[in-house]
Amino acid sequence: MSRYEDKDGKPSIVRLPEVDFIDDGPGKPIGIYGHIGRRPIAAFGNSDGDFQMLEWTTSGPGRTFGLIVHHDDAEREYAYDRNSHFGKLDRGLTEGPKRGWNIVSMKNDWNKVYPQ
């Protein structure tokens, strides 16, 4: 977290020993709102740590878009989902389609993961 200060007529930004926000889970929408000052119309995620961001974005008024990239291609890229120790994607796979979010499979929907 930072604070703007005016010391002896000199403006400065002072970094404080506090956490501004945690960029995961419920902290994602807080961080986004803090940076852009409004609810986005589109959000893209790849783990359950993005769930609240997708939920907040797609519950807004008007047209919205939510997309989850499912890392399920262990041959071309690391695969992780429901049983992973990190990057876990369980709740998003279960609830995402019910909420109208698009699920994109790296294995089935991408021709290339990394260009040559």
UniProtKB/TrEMBL annotation:
Family matches, as Gene3D superfamilies: HAD superfamily/HAD-like
InterPro entries per the UniProt record, alphabetical: HAD_sf
Record protein name field: Haloacid dehalogenase-like hydrolase
Naturally occurring in which organism (per UniProt): Rhizobium subbaraonis
